[in-house]
Amino acid sequence: MALRTTVPIAEWRVSADPAEELITYALGSCLGIAVHDPVACVGGLLHVMLPTSSVNPEKAAARPGMFVDTGVPLLFKDCYAMGAVKARMIATVAGGASQAGVDADHFQIGRRNMLMLRKLLWKNGVLLQAEDVEGSDSRTMSLDVGTGAVRLRINGQERDL
After folding, report:
1. Per the structure, how many domains does the chain have?
2. Has this prediction a pTM greater than 0.85?
3. 160: in domain
4. What 3 state SS string does the chain have?
5. Residue numbers annotated as active site
6. Residue 124 is part of which domain span?
7. What is the domain-level CATH number for residue 46?
8. What is the pLDDT along the chain (161 residues), one digit of tens a residue?
9. Ramachandran sector of residue 148 (left: φ over 0; alpha: ψ -120 to 50; beta: rest)
10. Within-domain flag for 82
């Protein structure tokens, strides 16, 4: 890897540089959504916090990457602008944890984030290739733009997704 780009919370990054790695940290109830077109060698990574922008339209206008329903379409559009094709896109997701423990998590943000993502992807004909969601562990997620490999680090242990 020649270049490592950090994707901050409520942001996304897209790249066509096969030497670049996109990485995001501290995925608790947030979701890390990675997409990759292996033919165009285009990849993107989004770190979303909340499921729907309707809770705060002003915030959504200023920071669309904060919400699943506004951030995911922008992630895909930016990939298309670099030559990606929807039919070839591979999507993976990690996060959606319940930091307070499943029984004490009244807001269920992680679960609601996943429900919104599944609904949005299904509506647009995109399937998830892999996921590592729920539980209570925070995750670090990275995407190798050149190969499309997605790696997770959970409690100091690394593995491919």
Report:
1. 1
2. yes
3. no
4. CCEEEECCCCCEEEECCCCEEEEEEEECCCEEEEEEECCCCEEEEEEECECCHHHCHHHHHHCHHHEHHHHHHHHHHHHHHCCCCHHHCEEEEEECCCCCCHHHCCCCHHHHHHHHHHHHHHHCCCCEEEEEECCCCCEEEEEECCCCCEEEEECCEEEEC
5. 30
6. 3-153
7. 3.30.1330.200
8. 479 999 999 999 999 999 999 999 999 999 999 999 999 999 999 999 999 999 999 999 999 999 999 999 999 999 999 999 999 999 999 999 986 655 555 678 889 999 999 999 999 999 899 999 988 899 999 999 999 999 999 999 999 99
9. left
10. yes
Residue 131 lies in a domain: yes
Do the domain assignments include residue 161? no
